[in-house]
């Protein structure tokens, strides 16, 4: 199981904004420098989170980003589903060289991976960004 860099950036951003809730908007550049991450990649994550109503972004001289709602109202599982656009978080098996696996009818790995993904997401669905704060 491996979460993508998009998800990592999303949670860095959300936790950082949650820890500084109530302060002025933060610029993407400031957050990227603070976390030593790619500004361009962070912009894409911010755009997605703004599009889905998790962040509020303001352009211009006094612009920046802030949480659209309190951290306790931002579900971790929902954010993971938004960021993980590749489908399953836990992959069971993949076709070899474009051909289906010859063991597919007898193997339960794909089913087990689906169960593991469901259990993983159930835990994340029970958490909010507020729960990630120490």
Fold topology:
Blueprint: H1 5-19, H2 28-35, H3 39-51, E1 55-58, E2 64-67, H4 76-83, H5 109-125, H6 129-132
Antiparallel strand pairs: 1-2
Describe this structure in words.
With 134 residues, the protein is mainly alpha-helical. It has a single domain (5-132), classed as Winged helix-like DNA-binding domain superfamily/Winged helix DNA-binding domain (Arc Repressor Mutant, subunit A, Orthogonal Bundle). The protein is 49% helix and 6% strand. The chain has six helices and two strands; from the N terminus they run H-H-H-E-E-H-H-H. The protein has helices at residues 5-19, 28-35, 39-51, 76-83, 109-125, 129-132, and strands at residues 55-58, 64-67. The protein has a two-stranded antiparallel ribbon with strand order 1-2. The longest helix has 17 residues, at 109-125.
């Amino acid at each position: 199981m491996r979460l993508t860099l998009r998800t990592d950036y999303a949670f860095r951003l959300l936790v950082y904004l949650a820890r500084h809730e109530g302060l002025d908007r933060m610029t993407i550049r400031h957050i990227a420098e603070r976390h030593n991450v790619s500004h361009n990649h962070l912009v894409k994550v911010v755009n997605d989170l703004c599009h889905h109503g998790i962040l509020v972004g303001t352009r211009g001289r006094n612009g920046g980003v802030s949480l659209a709602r309190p951290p306790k109202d931002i579900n971790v599982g929902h954010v993971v589903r938004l960021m993980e656009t590749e489908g399953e978080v836990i992959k069971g098996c993949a076709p070899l060289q474009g051909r289906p696996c010859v063991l597919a009818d007898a193997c339960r790995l794909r089913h087990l991976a689906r169960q593991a993904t469901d259990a993983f997401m159930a835990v994340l669905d029970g958490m909010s960004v507020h729960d990630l704060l120490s």
